[in-house]
Amino acid sequence: MNSHKYKNENYSFRQIRDLKGMVNTSAELYSDMKAFMVKNAPGGTYVPITYTQLKTDIDELGTALMDLGLTGQKIAVIGENRYEWVLTYLAVVNGVGVIVPLDKELPSEEVHNLLERAEVTAIIYSSKVGFVIEEASKGIESIEYIISMDTLEHTENKLSMKKLQQAGKRLLLEGKRNFIDAEIDPEGMSSLLFTSGTTGLAKGVMLSHKNITSNVYNMSKFVDVSNNDVGLSVLPMHHTYELTCHVFTCIYQGCCIAICEGLKYIVKNMAESKATVMLGVPLLFESMHKKVWKKAEESGKADKMRTAVQISKKLGVFNIKSTKRLFKSVHQAMGGHMRLLISGAAAIDPVVIENFNAMGFTMFQGYGMTENSPIIAVNKDRYFKPASVGLPMPGTEIQIIDKDENGVGEIICKGDSVMLGYYKDPEETERVLIDGWLHTGDYGYFDEDGFLYISGRKKNVIVTKNGKNIFPEEVEFYLNKSKYISEVIVWGYDGEKSGDTVIYAEIFPDYEAVEGTYGKISKNELKQILKKEIDIINEQMPLYKRVKRFEIREEEFEKTTTKKIKRYTAFQKKML
């Protein structure tokens, strides 16, 4: 459904100036409603936590942390997605100090480096990363407290978060109001987030309450999750995409957040929580899409489903949305209640979005980066285009600079969500922040309706000898359409004989799909199959973009925690 009548219509929500105000007003507005659903034991049942309880827990923990003398200090949080993680974040930023969220997948040496660079005074961590923290915290003089989310008692070298909350409760009963009454500076640094660092040293992005809450407030004008929705939290919370767009937006709008137990439990948790909303990355949604069609093929219903999808797409032109009944099996496979799917963090095949919409879900994508808290553009849930990342978010101005003959140029943006800068890195800050404009390093263009499209990363562009620009992401998009290609990275290099730019692809095949069609085959036979696929794909592209060389790899590419291939890492390994 994509109604033009909503082109100029936005949702209306209350204004907020900081995260503390957001939590406090939500606790008043939605007091006894469910803010979270959590599992106290793996495989157990979901237990609700109300908005009133959320505020109480934040006040107790914040009061206890201030009592430890942590006011104005930097406090790291690291662990899997869980209620205590959110609780830590909000307790720290809403009156104590600056939060430093860290990736739980990082090795101890990298965690050590980040703790040291951030000058962290305390760490709050999950037992699942206990060994990493034990190793990473060694030799860092600034660290005064190590706090466990899981232990029940204080020990000699670590404190118990649960015990601290109890202490905070007592202090509040005694009339200690320093946390509750703490004034928030909306424009001061409240969060220090380190980028993935896949292209070198991770950069520390400094965000304020104003940065984050303006993102939440303005994004909510385009996307409504306030009608008794339940969001399943799947992506890592240390990323701004999941934290701002899902967790904080849900808290702001009164939606309930169900914590997913892990990627392999998504379908199970969807059904148990009766989830209606999910944010994900392309790899996740494309995998779901493949499974839906694979199941249809196996049951002999694929042809019927293709016909139904085509009919639904035609009806969609007239804004007639397909019914769940028509695709009952697909909806059951997605938990039975799912209505809204939002993709971000990387480019997704528009066909996946088109098909899910045809099947009765609402699905679209958005675009952003940590440096903009993160959303820069997003589709409206009532007015969207599958191939576009959406319209400029309200309050955010977007320009395309240094355009080529096709209108493609670098995306720059300006608004209240633009970061304060990079931590202790004025040179890099000056490079990307020019006169208030954030230079994203992404290339893109607008269509006639003002929708934004992403072409690729500026640093990845392959420039041919003839001055042509090739975005490897575009070539990869076409290659990934082959059912025999699971993952691919494209590079360009100068041919020794011709001197022309040669487009080269490194491919991780879908071995299961190949075997399903051809049975057990040799590597040489696999190469011939992939060559035929590439020849077909090449016909869809101009000569200068065509893949001339390719190589097969036996293992998946290394990825970030948001399932993006570490392109720079792969390239370095290739050059060794």
CATH superfamily of the domain at 461-575: ANL, C-terminal domain
- Principal-axis shape equals globular
**Structural class estimated from helices and strands:** alpha/beta
Radius of gyration: 24 Å
Q: Tell me, what is the CATH class of the domain at 461-575? A: Alpha Beta
In what order do the strands lie side by side in the largest sheet? 2-1-11-10-12-13-14-15-16
- Span from first to last CA? 50 Å
CATH level-3 fold name of the domain at 461-575? GMP Synthetase, Chain A, domain 3
Q: What is the beta-strand fraction?
A: 15-25%
Report the mean per-residue pLDDT as an integer.
Answer: 91
How many β-strands, per DSSP?
27
Q: Outline the low-pLDDT stretches.
A: none
What does this protein structure show overall?
The protein has a nine-stranded mixed beta sheet with strand order 2-1-11-10-12-13-14-15-16, with helices on both faces. A five-stranded parallel beta sheet has the order 4-3-5-6-7, with helices on both faces. The protein has 576 residues and is of the alpha/beta class. The protein has a domain of 115 residues: ANL, C-terminal domain (GMP Synthetase, Chain A, domain 3, 2-Layer Sandwich), CATH 3.30.300.
Compact overview of the structure:
This protein has 576 residues and is of the alpha/beta class.
Layout of helices and strands:
Layout: H1 19-29, E1 34-39, E2 46-50, H2 51-67, E3 74-78, H3 83-96, E4 98-102, H4 108-118, E5 122-125, H5 130-136, E6 145-148, E7 159-160, H6 161-173, E8 189-194, E9 204-208, H7 209-219, E10 230-233, H8 240-253, E11 256-259, H9 266-273, E12 277-280, H10 282-299, H11 302-317, H12 328-333, E13 340-343, H13 350-358, E14 362-368, E15 375-378, E16 391-392, E17 396-401, E18 409-415, E19 421-422, H14 426-432, E20 433-434, E21 437-446, E22 452-457, E23 462-463, E24 469-470, H15 472-479, E25 485-494, E26 501-509, H16 511-518, H17 523-538, E27 547-552, H18 567-575
Parallel strand pairs: 1-11, 3-4, 3-5, 5-6, 6-7, 10-11, 10-12, 12-13, 13-14, 26-27
Antiparallel strand pairs: 1-2, 8-9, 9-19, 14-15, 15-16, 17-18, 18-21, 20-21, 21-22, 23-24, 25-26
Helix pairs in contact: 1-2, 1-8, 2-3, 2-6, 4-5, 7-8, 11-13
